Every structure is written in structure tokens, then in C-alpha cells.
Amino acid sequence: MITAEKLYEKLKDIQVGNPVCRFTQEHCELLLPTIRRIEELKREKNAIILVHNYVAPQIFYSVADYTGDSYGLSKKAKESDADVIVFSAVRFMAETAKILNPGKVVLDPNPDGGCSLADGITAKDVIRLRKEFPDHTFVCYINTTAEVKAQCDVCVTSSNVYAIIEKIPNDRIYFLPDRLMGENVIKHLEARGVNKDIQLWDGACYVHEEYQPESIDQVRRNFEGVEILVHPECRSSVVDKADYVGSTSQMLDHVRESKRDSFFLLTECGLTGVLQSEFPEKTFAGSCTLCKYMKFNSLEDILSVLENPSPRSIVEIDLETQKRALQCVERMFHYTS
Ligand code: 13P
Ligand code: SF4
């Protein structure tokens, strides 16, 4: 069972944000009654809690049954035999859990947790594009609504987008909604001598599009031997200068295996916090950025969704949409198996 001491042990090395905030043991003690009540309700309701790598560390390190990137958590949701799945992340991730495991009660403690990518394209847009590009295979990033997935052929995540687009037998692809990730895919495939006609929608992650290549130059000048890790939602001029590009969990694994001891990450601060906690002997230079949608998550909301979920926090998807979206997401598992 978690204690304030154990939680503080996990949180004490985390110092992200400006001004830098640090956890104290007193703070952990104050969180304990809420954590204990959540644990009780989990047992009573046979519930599991899935927590994305960007979510606040006091949630990540206390009530989570599984943590990870959007691919890993989708897999856990698909395989779960719990009665209730609480998804602490953003809306499209909770929806993906319901698509994959529709017989379960999926609870979203953060129903306003949008995403600038998922909110930037509608099913109507895709229906129109399919008429314009009838011979293209429509590949959607997981950061899309269930309705958009239902209109697409194959879903991908940041951990498999390069490999899946390369494997798809059609050499005409429409990739949506992340233009920057799409440009990275095009460059990656060109470098491997793969030629495909890849059309792109003009969406972007408001967190990752802000990063500029100059910050990498500056960090390299100031920190000798630093390893630069970036997410594939960054622009290609940033990805080109990085040492490693990968999903949030792939970056975590990369740091675990790396021989270097200082890193600069261009991604959301939640991941930097996890890395500081997991690898206190390593240095994580520079800054990171907060995703306001991920940061809406709180322990109080998780407690309240388990105690008495509001109608909006119970994820419902109409049967036709769920079935069509499931085919799209299942094709991702087919390509990654
Ligand atoms: P990951 O699948 O890499 O965790 O990414 C999700 C996301 O929203 C990144 O901004
Ligand atoms: Fe969406 Fe960007 Fe936030 Fe990820 S970091 S959930 S892509 S807005």
C-alpha cells in the first residue's frame, strides 16, 4: 500500500516548471486520504486506472495501474478484464479504450481534455477528402475523435507511424491530422528510398509546434555531450537536429538504455518529471512545455468519477461508429503484431 513516504520518495527529484516547483513530504501526506479512497473504490468496482506519461506525477506515481504512451495504454485497455476503466489523459485516449473494449464502463475524469490535433478535424472533413482522394489509404493519428477514426482505414501512434505507413501496400496515403508528423514521415521514407504520395491535413500539436531548431543549437553549445530527444509531433527542422525521435515511452526506454548522462527533451513536462524521478543520477537540461489538456487531470476528479460519474464522464460511442472505428484501430494492431 502506498504511504506518504513512498510517494515522496518517487516525487522528491521532480523539478519542472518555471518557477521550479518541488514536492514536499507534507504535500504527499495531504494527498493520502484521496489516494486511499480511490484505491478502495477501485477494489469495490473492479476498476483499473490508466495514466498517460504526461499526467501529473502525483497521479502517475500513486493510483495508476498502468502508465505509458498512447499505444501501450490502448493495448492495456483492449486486454483488460476489469469492469471499469478510468482513463486519466485526454478525451481521444478514453474514446479509444471504449472503441477497443466496448463492453466495459470507460470513465473519463477529464471530459474537457481536448487536444489541438483531435479538435482540428471532423468526420465531415474526412468524408469530403475521401471523395477528393478516392485511391488513397486514409491513415489517422490516434489523436483523433472516434467519428474521425470511423472514416479512416488505419490508425497509428507516434510509436509506429513510420513503420506502418511504410508497410501499407498502397503507395498513395492521406495522413491526418498532424502535418508536422506527416512531414517527418515523408523525410524518413525518402531517406529509406521509399517513394509514396503522402497527402497531409494541416493540423498541429500546439505544444510541440512551438519548438525551434535554434534551441537545440543553443543547448548543444552549452551542454557538451548532451543527448537531444524529441517527439515526432515536432517540426522536421527540429527532428533533423535531434539524436533520437520517438513516442513518450520510447524516449523513456531510450534514456534507460543510453550511456549518456545528460539529456534535453523537447516534449511535454510530464515526461521530464517521470525521467527525473526514474533516473535521479542523470541530468535533464533546459525546459519543457505543459499541455493544458493533460494538466486538467487531478486526483479529486478521479475520485469523483469513481464515486459518482457525471453523464459526460461516461464514454459512450454509438454502435456504428464504434464498429467502424474498431476496424481502423485493429488494423494498427495487425501491422504491429
Ligand atoms: P505518445 O503516444 O507518444 O504518448 O503521444 C501522445 C501525445 O499526445 C503526444 O503529444
Ligand atoms: Fe494533444 Fe499536443 Fe496535448 Fe498531446 S501534447 S494531448 S498532441 S495538445
Which SSEs are present, and which pair or pack?
Blueprint: H1 4-11, H2 25-45, E1 47-52, H3 57-60, E2 66-68, H4 70-79, E3 84-88, H5 91-100, E4 105-107, H6 123-132, E5 137-141, H7 146-150, E6 154-156, H8 161-167, E7 172-176, H9 179-191, E8 197-200, H10 213-222, E9 227-230, H11 236-239, E10 244-245, H12 248-257, E11 262-266, H13 269-278, E12 283-285, H14 299-307, H15 319-336
Parallel strand pairs: 1-2, 1-3, 3-4, 5-6, 5-7, 7-8, 9-10, 9-11, 11-12
The chain binds 1,3-dihydroxyacetonephosphate (13P) and iron/sulfur cluster.
Radius of gyration: 20 Å
- The DSSP helix count reads 15
Could you say which overall geometry the principal axes of the C-alpha atoms support?
globular
Structure ligands: 1,3-dihydroxyacetonephosphate, iron/sulfur cluster
The end-to-end distance, rounded to whole angstroms, is 35 Å
What count of structural domains?
Answer: 3
| CATH topology label of the largest domain | Rossmann fold
For the sheet with most strands, the description reads: 4 strands, parallel
Going by CATH, the homologous superfamily of the largest domain would be NadA-like
**Reported CATH architecture of the largest domain:** 3-Layer(aba) Sandwich
Assess the beta-strand content as a share of residues: 5-15%
Number of strands: 12
The succession of helices and strands, N to C, reads HHEHEHEHEHEHEHEHEHEHEHEHEHH
Taking pLDDT < 50 over at least 5 consecutive residues as the criterion, the unreliable ranges are: none
Helicity level = 40-55%
Mean pLDDT: 95
Structural class: alpha/beta
Order of strands in the sheet with most strands: 2-1-3-4
CATH class annotation of the largest domain: Alpha Beta
